[in-house]
Amino acid sequence: MKGRILVIDDELAMLDACEETLTYHGYEVTLCDGAEDGIAAASRQAFDVVLLDLKMPGKSGLDVLRELQTLDSNVKKVMITAFPTISTAVEAVKEGAFDYLPKPFSPDQLLITMERAIEQKRLSEENQRLRRALGLRSGFEDIIARSPAMMRVLDLVERLTESDSSVVIEGETGTGKELIARSLHANSPRRGKPFLPIDCGALPETLLENELFGHEPGAFTGADRRKHGLLEAAQGGTVFLDEVANLSLDLQVKLLRVLQERRVRRLGGQEDFDVDFRLITAANESLEEGMNAGRFRRDLFYRLSVVTLALPPVRQREGDVVLLAEHFVTRLNEAGPKHVDGLAKGALDVLERYSWPGNVRELQNAVESAHSLCRGAVIESDDLPARVHADSGPSPHATSGNFDSARRQFEREYLQALLRRCGGNVSRAAQASGVHRSTLQRLLRRNGLRSEDFRS
């Protein structure tokens, strides 16, 4: 695939012409015949280029351009119009447009513009990666993302690198909260000091209190020597409290006192010690809801939540499933001894349709299982765990958008299922579907599908 392109135009003939040209030349194309549908598509999925009509009913192309720029400033926007003027071209460029195509344009003009836009985007991304490698020294290596939802999170993380404020990271289980916490620490002024994590939900209250505050000899039966707690041992570094919502109200009071006074007293001790640490906490539920329900202290909530980062679940990270899966395959290959060449198209389709209630952790587990069981050169859909197949319904976008976008989505999914059933044999697929072979080949080209990807 050369790149992902979103075309937004109220003229169906223009949509069809762009789709036919671009899919034939290897691009993945999404079509929207209205401004709102286009904005919704851009918020769900990351694109390389957006081809946008300047004149549309409802919102103008410039209004849509501004919203797209807010959603993802990295995507290249190309304006198209039948009424080109210098003033509108200048205004579009000022608002973030990469280029301007006057109607009518030839297929060659369209292709040249797309190639330039994608090349420029990739150069920009490489430049950003280099800057990040220099400025964000570590901790980002395992954060694999390109979805707008995660890009917004990473932008916040980058803005927090020179901050010492307390941060709450909220997100479902398996979304990578500790990974984000480690990144915040690794790129903060405290990076040379300890990062000490503890899972507040994994320990009983008395043991958790001992781990946090430490104890003096004789504090309880078996306490024969002094123990420094995490809050003391992290001196100059970062303490990460995972599942902080599980803290008892008594422990919440004691933690609040430490944060207010910046002093800690070991269990069984009489002396307070100065402490200096940054506190990052995480929860798989809303701390504000816990506060409103009386499970979490209001004063502690305001101490902790100076900044809140909300991590999206995998089902909301459009386009990231494939990136993550391929990343996990690469890591498994590097670990050896087994090596596979990647994931087949059918396997990727199954992965993208699954809802991933266990998020990144579950996806990693599924890919590792398939990698272990794979008998061929690539991971096929049959290698994936049964639960992934059982819960893989139609594409999550099949019932969204307008009728034309739903019809195009259905057509693509039907062709994929047909090719899988016929083992990539176009003649058999044409016979099974009752469609002439040349018509079927045209439909495959229009949907960016290659029969050889479905051959076992």
**Outline type:** globular
CATH topology of the largest domain: Rossmann fold
Q: Reading side by side through the largest sheet, how are the strands ordered? A: 2-1-3-4-5
Supply the CATH architecture of the largest domain. 3-Layer(aba) Sandwich
**What structural category characterises the helix and strand content?**
alpha/beta
How much beta, percentage-wise?
5-15%
Count of runs of 4 or more consecutive helical residues: 19
> Which percent range fits the helix content?
40-55%
CATH class of the largest domain: Alpha Beta
Summed up, the domain count is 4
Number of strands: 14
Q: Low-confidence segments, ≥5 residues, pLDDT <50?
A: 131-138, 396-400
Mean pLDDT: 84
Distance between the termini: 20 Å
Q: What is the H level of CATH, i.e. the homologous superfamily of the largest domain?
A: P-loop containing nucleotide triphosphate hydrolases
Major beta sheet, specifics?
Answer: 5 strands, parallel
- Rg: 27 Å
Describe the secondary-structure layout.
Layout (H helix, E strand, L loop, with lengths): L3 E5 L3 H13 L3 E5 L2 H10 L4 E5 L7 H11 L4 E6 L4 H9 L2 E6 L4 H29 L12 H12 L7 E4 L6 H10 L8 E5 L5 H9 E2 L11 E2 L1 H4 L4 E5 L6 H13 L1 E3 L6 E3 L3 E6 L3 H6 L5 H7 L2 E4 L9 H16 L9 H9 L5 H15 L12 H5 L12 H19 L4 H8 L3 H10 L10
Parallel strand pairs: 1-2, 1-3, 3-4, 4-5, 6-13, 6-14, 7-10, 10-13
Antiparallel strand pairs: 8-9, 11-12
Give a structural overview:
The protein has 456 residues and is α/β, with parallel strands linked by helices. The chain folds into 4 domains: 1-138, Rossmann fold, CATH 3.40.50.2300; 148-311, P-loop containing nucleotide triphosphate hydrolases (Rossmann fold), CATH 3.40.50.300; 315-390, Helicase, Ruva Protein, domain 3; 396-456, Arc Repressor Mutant, subunit A. The chain is 47% helix and 13% strand. The protein has helices at residues 12-24, 35-44, 61-71, 86-94, 107-135, 148-159, 177-186, 205-213, 230-233, 249-261, 287-292, 298-304, 320-335, 345-353, 359-373, 386-390, 403-421, 426-433, 437-446, and strands at residues 4-8, 28-32, 49-53, 76-81, 97-102, 167-170, 195-199, 214-215, 227-228, 238-242, 263-265, 272-274, 278-283, 307-310.
